[in-house]
Amino acid sequence: MQQALEMKVGLCVIAEPSYIPKTTGWFYSDNNLAAIYHNGDNLGHACKLVRRGTNFVAARLGNVHILSCYISPNVSIREYEVFLDDLTECIRTLPGKILICGDFNAWSRLWGSAFTNRRGELVED
User: Fold this and answer.
1) What is one Pfam family matched by this protein (predicted)?
2) Strand 56-61 vs strand 47-52: parallel, antiparallel, or unpaired?
3) Structure confidence by residue, pLDDT tens digits, 87-102
């Protein structure tokens, strides 16, 4: 993260950050495991918080919505399904273009994994 700040990055999406400063420019999930850093001076546009969930955070930059997500590989399938339901509900309310970033801890041949696990099947659906 420090490198992003030093490089004057305008936007950075982070899954499972080691630390989130509670300062202007940071949006973060309720459990602090997904974050978006934004610097309006470097972006040329303001970034606005749209929604915070337990495992995701959503922001709007112009006409694009950006989501940062993280879900632990240690949660149960039921907890995983709840996460995906919450994320889906959020996405359905967002107009315009949507960029979803994150670590879903899901494996699928669809995106190059050696095999597909149950989480991968759920994300595919």
Assistant:
1) Exo_endo_phos_2
2) antiparallel
3) 999 999 999 999 999 9
